[in-house]
Amino acid sequence: MLVVHKYGGTSVGDVERIENVTNRVAKAREAGDDIVVVVSAMSGETNKLIGFAEHFTKEPAKKEMDMLLSSGERVTAALLSIALQARGYDAIAMTGRGAGIVTTDSHTYARIESIDPRAMHAAIKAGKIVIVAGFQGVNKDGSVTTLGRGGSDLSAVALAGALKADQCEIYSDVDGIYTTDPRIEPNAKKLDTISYDEMLELSSLGAKVLQSRSVELAKKLNVKLYAKSSFSDNVGTLITEESENMEEVLVSGVVLDKNQARVTLRGVSDRPGIAAEIFTMLAEANIHVDMIIQNMGTDGSTNLGFTVPHSEHENAKKLMASFDHDIEGMDFDEHVCKVSVVGVGMKSHSGVAATAFTVLANSNINIQMISTSEIKISMVIDEKYGELAIRTLHEAYELDK
Length: 401
Ligand code: ADP
Ligand code: ASP
Ligand code: MG
Prior knowledge:
Distance between the termini: 36 Å
Bound molecules: adenosine-5'-diphosphate, aspartic acid, magnesium ion
Structural class: alpha/beta
Oligomer: single chain
Number of helices: 11
CATH class of the largest domain: Alpha Beta
């Protein structure tokens, strides 16, 4: 069997932990598997490198940032390979380029365009354990690119797809996907399976246990994906196609996203084209707008609200302040968060949203914005109630049962 393992930052956080990963890889090898290992940088390393760059300027060149950030993953790939060799295993460390990963040009947020797996196949055929530095590739000009934060998950899934691996196992410090972040709700339950679509919602709504682009790609390439812990031998969670019995589950999880800031525009002219003008301007400034709400206009004007990530809040503020027509006033709130309820079962059941609103009301939590889709409800609330809301919703949907 050909298996791709991916070890995240906490799993390779220091040499002892790399030793632990060495043991796990060795064990899988002894069991007869061919193994490709994707590694992240040691935990905290990427942030540390960003901090170094920001010591000099708040806006370092993205090409240079890719050169800098890609180094973190190379360190762990080389160390793991060295550790395996020291134990007598034949291992080889590769960069993204070495593994044949070609990406778009967009530095710090590149997309994978193609993978040429020949070098990896040759190494596997020669009996080697292949260790690949995650989170990176190379663009057509030959410069190194990175894939966005949490991007080693994406590297692992993409390699599993290109190698036609039997499965892809993502190892972190939790032994699977839980009904909510177990750090917030200790009564959270581990799920045996979850559908790609539900996982995609959980990830894009803020559950960082798997990067959302990696889940999207796993679904597209039909990669058999497991979330497991590098600190235990528990079975983990299988992320797979939706199955019939899954539909009986109404709600599969709740998610907290603290990375939200709210912008409210008051007295916006109620005319065709105004939303296009505002959101085109934000998009051109690379500001990622998340939730948007607009009311029916009265007396020729309306209110428009939206959220952006914290890091883009200042930029959004400056940009909106430069918008000198068609808006009467605006206010900004950095201290908000988004809580979401996810479940494929919502498709065929009503009342899920009403329950969420009721339990938040009973806890005296005011809902500032709401958005829904077929399989999720998201609500923006004051950030100080975020964790309370998660625990309250978790209990209301009996996710601890
Ligand atoms: P790594 O550094 O290995 O990539 P991450 O820190 O990105 O790992 O992801 C693991 C973390 O995700 C856990 O420590 C946990 O707190 C968090 N998490 C958030 N939501 C969930 C969830 N629904 N199930 C499991 N873990 C979750
Ligand atoms: N080291 C990168 C990050 O911290 C990529 C990853 O860990 O997946 O975002
Ligand atoms: Mg991660």
